């Protein structure tokens, strides 16, 4: 980065609020205006400004890729398989065309409603255990990760590529999907490095066990018999995989335990599902270029895919797990009181023109720090 650019980025970070307000009011696309340097430094941009730039870039792709509409003819009871057969053979350029859906045996033309319904059905079928593509994370039982046992399905890699294309196409078409993935999965899409901290959201019990290992002397804790390997069960058979070359001969010590925690976390979140992730990303990047989607954070990508969910506070309270606190703790009571007031204050009025966000029944583990 040249000195002038560095100075400008520093200035932009210091005046972020004003800068984003200027960009919201500007009628010139970000990539063509006086602030085009920010295209490569989007961390100073707010989500809505990023999304506007993102849509402008997709519009440019659309203008250079005008093709005939693609018809998807499917039976409702076989939407996933028949959609796969219809779209798998299409080129990335063809898939950027407008889709219209025909449900066999039903009259009527698709004016947009059938496509939205098709996306809703596909979003459910992606997680159908019959296909063995995804499984819920141990931490919250709500967000999804690639199933390391997906090879039970002989077509799993083709299906993962198809799912990647569908999710990217939904973003391309500005359609929200009722599907939520783990932090690590979003980071894979964005091309960001996975960290041990991501395990806190994915498998809290494993995260706590690793924190215990980091915070205590291994010999005193009886953990001085570890090496750089990990046991993985496949088809009912336990297999030992090395975390690094010759890992079975490298003991975990107080000196190298940070490296061990990093590698075993990466193996759990990446190593055991590497081929599935690659197939998904191959499909996703067929529709949306990696450099374009990577302007977002993992939280922003979730909003881009799924929209802002509605929250059922009573259901959330009934399904919350407390760590180091209890339901009678004063801080917890304050939290629920503030959450309820916030939702009432921000509830849409009858005159609101904003579309209703997708429904999402929240079952979360609330992790409190002391």
Explain what this protein looks like in three dimensions.
With 370 residues, this protein is mostly helical. The chain contains 16 helices and eight strands. The strands form four sheets. It has a two-stranded parallel ribbon. The protein is globular, with a radius of gyration of 23 Å. 23% of the residues are buried.
Please give a handful of descriptors for the protein shown.
370 residues; mainly alpha; two-stranded parallel ribbon; two-stranded antiparallel ribbon; globular
Secondary-structure blueprint of this entry?
Elements: H1 3-14, H2 16-25, H3 47-63, E1 70-74, H4 79-88, H5 92-95, E2 99-103, H6 113-125, E3 134-136, E4 144-146, H7 156-172, H8 183-190, H9 199-202, H10 204-215, E5 229-234, E6 237-242, H11 257-269, H12 274-287, H13 290-293, H14 298-306, H15 313-318, E7 321-322, H16 330-345, E8 365-366
Parallel strand pairs: 1-2, 7-8
Antiparallel strand pairs: 3-4, 5-6
Helix pairs in contact: 7-12, 8-14
Structural class: mainly alpha
Q: Helical proportion?
A: 40-55%
For the largest beta sheet, what order do the strands appear in spatially? 1-2
- Head-to-tail CA distance between termini: 40 Å
* Count of distinct strands: 8
Globally, the shape reads globular
Give Rg in angstroms. 23 Å
Spans of at least 5 consecutive residues whose pLDDT stays below 50 are 345-370
Number of helices: 16
Q: Topology as H/E string?
A: HHHEHHEHEEHHHHEEHHHHHEHE
Beta-strand residue percentage: 5-15%
Overall mean confidence score, pLDDT: 83
Biggest sheet, open or closed, and with what strands and sense?
2 strands, parallel
């Amino acid at each position: 980065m040249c000195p002038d650019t560095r100075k400008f980025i520093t200035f932009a970070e210091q005046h972020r609020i004003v800068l984003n307000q200027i960009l919201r009011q500007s009628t010139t696309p970000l990539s063509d205006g006086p602030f085009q340097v920010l295209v490569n430094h989007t961390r100073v941009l707010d989500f809505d400004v990023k999304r506007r730039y993102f849509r402008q870039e997709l519009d440019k792709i659309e203008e250079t890729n005008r093709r005939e509409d693609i018809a998807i003819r499917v039976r409702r009871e076989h939407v996933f398989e028949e959609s796969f057969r219809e779209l798998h053979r299409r080129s990335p350029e063809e898939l950027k065309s407008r889709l219209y859906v025909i449900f066999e045996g039903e009259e009527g033309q698709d004016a947009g409603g059938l496509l939205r319904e098709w996306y809703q059905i596909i979003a459910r079928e992606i997680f159908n255990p019959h296909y063995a593509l995804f499984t819920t994370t141990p931490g919250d039982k709500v967000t999804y990760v690639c199933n390391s046992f997906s090879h039970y399905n002989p077509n799993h890699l083709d299906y993962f590529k198809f799912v990647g294309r569908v999710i990217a196409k939904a973003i391309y078409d500005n359609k929200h999907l009722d599907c939520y993935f783990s932090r690590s999965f979003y980071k894979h899409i964005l091309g960001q490095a996975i960290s041990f901290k991501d395990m806190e959201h994915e498998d809290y019990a494993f995260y706590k066990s690793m924190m215990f290992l980091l915070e205590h002397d291994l010999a005193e804790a009886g953990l001085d018999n570890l090496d750089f390997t990990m046991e993985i069960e496949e088809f009912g058979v336990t297999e030992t995989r090395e975390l690094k070359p010759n890992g079975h001969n490298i003991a975990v010590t107080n000196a190298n335990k940070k490296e061990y925690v990093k590698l075993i976390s990466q193996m759990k979140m990446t190593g055991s599902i590497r081929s599935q992730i690659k197939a998904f990303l191959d499909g996703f990047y067929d529709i949306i270029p990696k450099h374009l989607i990577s302007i977002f954070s993992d939280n922003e990508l979730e909003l881009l895919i799924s929209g802002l969910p509605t929250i059922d506070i009573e259901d959330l309270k009934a399904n919350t797990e407390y760590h180091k606190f209890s339901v009678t703790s004063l801080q917890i009571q304050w939290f629920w009181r503030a959450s309820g007031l916030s939702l009432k204050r921000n509830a849409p009025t009858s005159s609101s023109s904003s579309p209703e966000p997708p429904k999402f029944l929240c079952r979360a583990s609330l992790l409190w720090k002391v």
